[in-house]
Amino acid sequence: MSKRKAQYASKLKRATHMLFYKKHMKPGVKGWELRKTLGSDYPKVLKILDDYLKALDLQVKTVFEEEKEIEKPTLEHLDKARFLITLRGDLTPKEAKMVGWRIDDLAGLAVTIAYVISKKGQAPRKDVEELLREKLPGWKVGINIDRYVRYGYLTQDEYGQLYLDWRTRAEVDQKALIDLLLRTETKPA
Amino acid sequence: MQSKREREKNGREKLQRIIGTCKSVEERALDPFLIDINENISTVRELFPEWNIPEDLCLDAETIHRLASVIKLQSEWVKHRSTTLYTDPFLLEEKLTRLPKEEIVKTFMQAWRPTVELEQISLHSLSEATGYWESLVPLNERWKEMPPEEVGAGSATREELIKQRILRDRTFSEELESFWQELKNKVSEKSEDGKIHYWDFVGAETYEETIQRAFMTSFLITYGYATLEIHPLEEETFVKPYERPVVKTGKTQLVSIPIAITADEWARWKKGESK
Fold first, then answer.
1. Among partner residues B98, B109, B115, which is closest to A92 by beta-carbon distance?
2. Is residue B158 domain-resident?
């Protein structure tokens, strides 16, 4: 093995450790942390790791500080971004149980995210609660929203407005979700 | 025919109403097109010749600023509607209400890529943890139990309670009256125009005492023993005692004036830098 290849193999291992194991409260690591450990060519290391993970149905996901996706990120953008490992393909509803979610809670999350997206990324908490209360028991609604906030799917400001947070940006393909929901046929009541 | 004063008063109210509406649109994420920008701009333009004093001009500027923020929101609204992410909220809400939760979850699964994160103990962290455990002092040594102090029941005199600051030696109204007297004395000693600089009155040797004096001064003003005179351009505030307490009727609108008594401000006053 050439010296260069050995160097990349070692960096790949270190990147895997850093990305898979939870080090902080939030999963994943910031770009600057990767640069500190792996060197300035860390984007290349992540690209190799991402190719490697394809076969395992996983991917390296980049979540930029800005809300929108950046097509051609600069090193500065990448340094501030958060890198995580996420699933590449779909889960089946049965598999969702392995992730630790009950069907009710997951449906609540889907409804909340879709509703906030439809309201231009910001919706009053009481409106979301009202919507969830139609299908979830009242006592559970507040607990669930707090849980979504705690996990980083949503964030709430002092005026009781809910916004999408970093985890939604990392894990949910927002456009696909809305398209799929609108395409789903509802049975006549 | 309205007098100039009435026109100004009505004008101010109109501007404050516009500011309030703009604020609620910004804070509650209401539809920004609920605000008729043209009509509001015409109102602002119509009222502009009435304004002479800086406060009114500031109010005018704030109104323009708020309207500009609403225009920005309107532009964002239009941009969002033109993107592929835009969906009619009512249509989507209707869908979400009618879809069974199993269907919603099935759909969500196609757009959700949950994060993979592991928590696992390693040999290295186990050995570190063992080392830590060995060097850890037992709880009974760290938190030695303190024997409970025996306190016998007894009686306390009024003087003792005053000393411990549980009771006050005078009633609040007596204190306020004497504080008012102090203000009047200071004003007659130090000034000829019947007022004293706010900081020269509330400022004291210690920061705690200054806070206490500022607290009492606020009551002097609220209860009509004194008033505040504010010169915004010079950034100066004066306290002016009344000869007799003035009863404030409900005709005039009372306003609250926040004055920050920070430790820095107090230190500046002590050094003699404060105005």
1. B109
2. no
Residue A118 buriedness (CB in 10 A; 0-12 / 13-18 / 19+): buried
Q: Is A162 in contact with A124 (CB distance < 8 Å)?
A: yes
- Cα–Cα distances (Å) from B153 to B156, B166, B258, in that order, read 10, 18, 46
- The domain segmentation of chain A, as residue ranges, is 3-89, 94-183
Residue A1 pLDDT > 70: no
Q: Find chain B residues with C-beta within 8 A of A21's C-beta.
A: 117-120
Please report whether residue B50 resides in a domain. yes
CA geometry: angle B4, B7, B8, nearest 5 deg: 85
Q: How far is CA A32 from the centre of its chain?
A: 19
Copy the structure tokens of residue B121.
């103990």
User: DSSP state, B144?
Assistant: P
The C-alpha atoms of residue A186 and residue B96 are separated, in whole angstroms, by 10
Nearest to B95 among A20, A186, A189 (CB): A186
Q: Is B58 in a helix, a strand, or coil? A: helix
Q: Which of B103, B88, B101, B110 is nearest to A185 (CA)?
A: B103
- CA angle at B83 for the pair B79 and B89, rounded to the nearest 5°: 90
Q: Which of B50, B82, B114 is the last residue of a domain?
A: B82
Q: How many CB pairs under 8 A join A and B?
A: 145
Query: Quick one: fold of A3-89?
Result: Aspartate Aminotransferase, domain 1 (3.90.1150)
Residue B153 or residue A141, greater confidence: A141
pLDDT one-digit tens code per residue, B205-232:
888 889 989 988 998 888 888 988 888 7
